[in-house]
Amino acid sequence: MSRRWRIETALSSLLRERGIATLDELITILVMGKEPGLSQQVVEALLNNETYFFRDRAPFDVLSRHALPELAQRRQKTKRLRIWSAGCSTGQEVYSLAMLFAEAPEQWHGWTIDILGTDVSTHCIDRARAGIYSQFEVQRGLGINQTIRWFEECADGWRGVEDLRRPVRFQIHNLLEPPPHPGGFDIVLCRNVLLYLSPDKKTLAFERLASAMAEDGWLMLGAGETVIGQTSKLGTDINARGLYRLVGDGSRIEKRVGDRRSTSGA
């Protein structure tokens, strides 16, 4: 009952706008398929687009201290990194990642950094591509020095400078579909997305995420999410809590089976 109430609350504006009296009437219209575009509007209304720059900053610190230095060594020959932010909402996570590289120019000089942000919401992707945020949005997670350095004031708020936007790109994508082409991402972030999926859809999502990762890549989930009991393809990196690796990639992986713990790899 409480879930239905939350759905009705999220869709209330859309129902009024479309002149639809009840949730049951909306479901009937969707099933009949008489109003093209309505299903996308429903998806947009139901999505939780809460995000901000360097959200829960600790995970970004883990990337900076552990994953990125190791990748800098492993990818020294190709000097190329590919990162995927799944469920990126309006793009703050993607631009936060871009700042990690932009603020270490000597370390990443000569590298090709490709950061892809995807989301099922057309509205969110349009906003992310524009890279324009309100004063309130830039203040959430960014200090004054970062704001002035990486954003320039414009008529609609603050827009990311060219150096920040250069390595990023965005596209519409459903996490439950095959991963964006090509795969082989060195880092995949899927934070606070799986919480909203049913168990069977969550299992499928982990299949998709695992298939998108490079053999020695990392997956980062949200603070309240885990791979434990959800998939056999991924395990916790014991050297970097909060990051997950493909099982059998040769790194030190911790897997939990029931109440037992085992470590695989060398």
TrEMBL record:
Q: Name one Pfam family in it.
A: CheR
Q: Where is the CheR-type methyltransferase domain?
A: 1-249
Q: Recite the UniProt keywords alphabetically.
A: Methyltransferase, S-adenosyl-L-methionine, Transferase
Q: What is this protein called?
A: Protein-glutamate O-methyltransferase CheR
Q: Native species of this protein?
A: Sphingomonas hankyongi
